[in-house]
Amino acid sequence: MAGHNKWSKIKRGKAITDAKRGNAFSKLAKEITLAAKSGGGSPDMNARLRSAILAARAANVPNDNIDRAIKKGTGEIAGAALEEILYEAYGPGGVAMMIEIVTDNRNRSANDIRVLLSKNNGTFADSGSVAYMFQRRGEIRLDKSATTEDQIMEAALEAGAEDIQEDGEDWVVYTATDQLFQVANALREKNLASRSQKLIYQPQTTVTISDVDNAKSLIRLYDVLDDYDDSQNVHANFEIDDAIAEQLG
Q1: 131: phi > 0 → left, psi -120 to 50 → alpha, else beta; which?
Q2: 49, 113, 128, 206: which has the fewest Cβ within 10 Å?
Q3: Which pLDDT value is given to residue 2?
């Protein structure tokens, strides 16, 4: 089991801010729509949809919004067709980035991302030139105060998890992509409910940033990409030195 550095706290603080201003609602609704589109509108028969609904409820998304998002996915309510796109990019200092997009207009999103990158010292990467640096995995986050290290280790490994890490106020359980929902359900049956569960792109190795200006530049790029309306998730292979992270707040 390993820990994460203070850059994780900065990202968690941003996630809280996003939730307050409604950014999270839009992302969660899109995930529900995509899940319903790909696997049907029944949470009992669609593990991805069940997970998306649980995440939405945890973020206090109104039930009407959840129902509407499901019906958009099943076609019961008319709406623009959404598609998932994965962009690869480089940030300042050659940091590798994976940008997950959900959009109803591929050309618009590609142009918008290109502009955001160029204005913030980033560039598009050729297909495959960045992806190999990341591993697709399932990630389950649980409140650290709800269980001990021994309990989460035993329960998660018994359920089929690959790794467990400590990250601030969370236990983070990693799984194979096809085991995410099964492991999350097994933990839930043991009264270990998750804060979130999703598929991520986890960097195989990370670059530690030890310069304040470079750190600010990277965080600025990360923020503008994450705040973009069509952006669903942004992954990058950098960590910020703890001393630098302290200066950034």
Answers
A1: alpha
A2: 128
A3: 45
Q: Give Cα separations from 84 to 31, 43, 60, 109 (angstroms).
A: 10, 21, 25, 11
Nearest to 230 by CA among 129, 59, 115: 115
What does the pLDDT look like over 116-135, one tens digit per residue?
A: 999 999 999 999 999 999 99
Query: Tell me: the pLDDT tens digits for 180-200?
Result: 988 998 998 999 988 888 889
Nearest to 142 by CA among 167, 177, 161, 162: 167
Buried b (16+ CB within 10 A) or exposed e, 31-49: bbbbbbbebebebeebbbb
**Mean pLDDT of the region 221-233:** 93
Residue 204 DSSP symbol: S
Tokens at residue 42, please? 């029944």
- Could you tell me which residues come within 8 angstroms of residue 224 by beta carbon, excluding any fewer than 6 positions away? 116, 119, 120
- Structure tokens that stand for 24 in this block: 């999270």
Question: Do 45 and 39 touch, CB atoms closer than 8 A?
Answer: yes
**Six-digit token pair at 110?**
């590609």
Domains of the chain: 22-74 (1.10.10.200), 83-132+205-237 (3.30.70.980)
What is the arrangement of strands in the sheet containing 196-203, beginning at the earlier edge strand? 163-167, 170-175, 134-143, 196-203
